[in-house]
Specification:
With 557 residues, this protein is mainly beta. It has a domain of 364 residues: OMPT-like (Lipocalin), CATH 2.40.128. 9% of the residues lie in helices and 44% in strands. The protein has four helices and 21 strands. Strands 3-8-9-13-14-15-16-18-19-21 form a ten-stranded antiparallel beta barrel. A three-stranded mixed beta sheet has the order 12-11-20, with no helix packed on it. A two-stranded parallel sheet has the order 1-2. Keywords: Signal. InterPro entries: BBP7 (IPR011446).
Length: 557
Amino acid sequence: MLVAVAATAAFCLSTPLLAQTRSISTSGLGSEQSARAAWQPVRDLSKGSAAATDNSGQIRLVDHQSPAATQRQATQRKPSAAQANTSRLRPVGHSATANSVLSEPIVMEGEMPMDGQIMLEPMQHYGGEPMHMGGSYGCDDMGCDGSCGPAMGGCDGASCSSGYCSNGDPMCGEYRDCNTIRPCITLCWPQDGWFSAEYLMWWQDGVSLPPLASTGRLSDREPLANGSVLYGGNDVITDNLNGGRLDFGFWFDKCHTWGIGGGGFALDRGTSSFAGGSQNDPLVRPIITVLDNPAPNMDELGEAMALVNYSQVGHTGTLNIDVDSRLTGWNIYLRHFRTAEQGCTHTGPCSCPTRWCARSEHRLGFRSVELDEGIGIDSNIMVAGAGPGDGPLTFALTESFRTRNQFNGIDLGWYHTRSIGYWNFDLGLQLGVGNMRQSVQIAGSTIVNGTGPALNGGLLALNSNIGNYERNEFAVLPEFNAKIGYQLTDQLRATFGYTFLYMSNVVRPGDQIDRIIDTAQIPNANAPTPTGTFPRFAFDNTDYWAQGLSFGLNYRW
C-alpha cells in the first residue's frame, strides 16, 4: 500500500517539471507568447513613479521613470543630460536579452525625431486660447513662441523669438538683450530703452480771416457797393505742413514693467500771403464805420473802404498781408505695463501657424503744447496833393495781430500693441487736462510822409484795441494715435501711422480783428489820435485740431 502511494506521488510531481523543461526547450515561440500575454502599455506618464508593483516581466511602451531616476529623485539631485537620455531608453523584454535596450531616446518638444524615435506631444494647450501672463509676462514664463514656434512646425517672425532671454522679442514687441554687462568709457546708457524718429505730414484747422482786401465796398445795401473779396473771408494755411516727432526713454527693470520717456514734435511754420498794388486797380481795404448822423432808414453802421490803389481819385499804393501759424509740443511720462496675452493663429496663403501676442500699458505724465499764430498787414499809400502847389502825402501803416496759446497739464494715456509675426499694430489714446494760457498782442502805427515819429494806430489796430491781453482758461487736449510697424531687424522697426489732436479754448488771430472802426481814431498829420470805442477787443474762444500721417523708424536696445 505504501509502495502504491509513493509511486502515485512521484508521477504527479514529475508532470510540472516536464512541462517547464518543454517550455524552456522551445524558448523561441514560447517566450514571445508569454511576453504578449504579460504586455501592458503604460498610458499615464505622470504616474510612472507611483506604481510599486514589480513590472519587470512586462514590455513597456514608454519607461517614463527608470529605477535610477527614482533613486535620484529621492536624493533631490538633478540628472545630467546623458543620464536623462539613459532613463528614457525602452526595455525590450525579460528573456535572454532582457537587459538589452533600444538605442533611440525619446524625443521631447523642440527636437527633430529620427526614424524609430518616440515623439512626445507637448503638455500645454495651444488651440488659440489667450494665455494671460499678468505682470510677469516675459520673465520666468513661457517664451514668446509658446507652442507656435519652429519647434512645433510654425513660422515665427523676428518680433517673436523664443527663449527666456534672446535677441528677439520675449515680451511681445519689447526688445531685451542678454548682454547685461557693457563697457563704459565716458557715457553709460541705460540697459533697455527705445528711440523713435518720425516725419510728419499733417493738416490743421485753417486760420479764419475776415475780408482784408477787396475791389470795393462789400455791402449790397448800396448800388455802388459791388466789390469782390481779393483776400480773406475764408480759411488759410489749410495745406499739409511738414514736421518731425521724436520719442525716447528707458526701462527701469528687465521685465519692462516700469519705464520713463519723453519726446516732442514740431510742425514747420505755415504761411499765407497776399501782395497787391497797381495790378489790382481798384484795391481797397473793406471796413465798417460808425456813422455820426445815420439816416433814419439806415443802421448806425455802414460799409466803407480805405483806399490803397485807386487811380480814379489819385491813390497809388501797395498792400501786403502775411499770415503764419506754428504748432509745437513736448511731454514727459511714466509708462506702466498692465496686461498681456498671447495665442496662435493662422496667417498667409499657406495658413501657417503664427504666434500673436498683445500688450497693454498705462501712461501718466506732463504735456505742453503751444500754438503760435499771427497776421501782419503793411500798406503804403501815396495821395496826390489837393491843389496845384500841394505835394503828395504818403502814409505807411503797419498792423499786427498775434495770438499765443500755451497748454500745460497732466496727460493720461492708454496704449495697446498687438504683434503678429513681423507685423505690429499700435493704438494709443491720450487725454491732457490743464490750463490754457491765452495771449493776444495787437499793435499798429502810422508814419506820415516818411518823417517824424510814428503815430499810434493804423486802420484796424487803433487806440481802442491796441495792447497785450492775457488770461487763463481750462482746456482739454485729447489725442488719438494708430500705427502699423514692420520689423526690419530684431531692434529696428519701420512704422506708418495716423494722429489726431484736438485743443479746446484757443484764441486765433483772425477772430480778434474787428472791422468796425471809428474813423475819428485814424491817425493823420493834423491832429493827435483820439480814443474811441471802436474797434473793440474781446477774447473770442474757439477750438483747434490737427491731424495727419507719420513715417518713421523705431530703434530699441
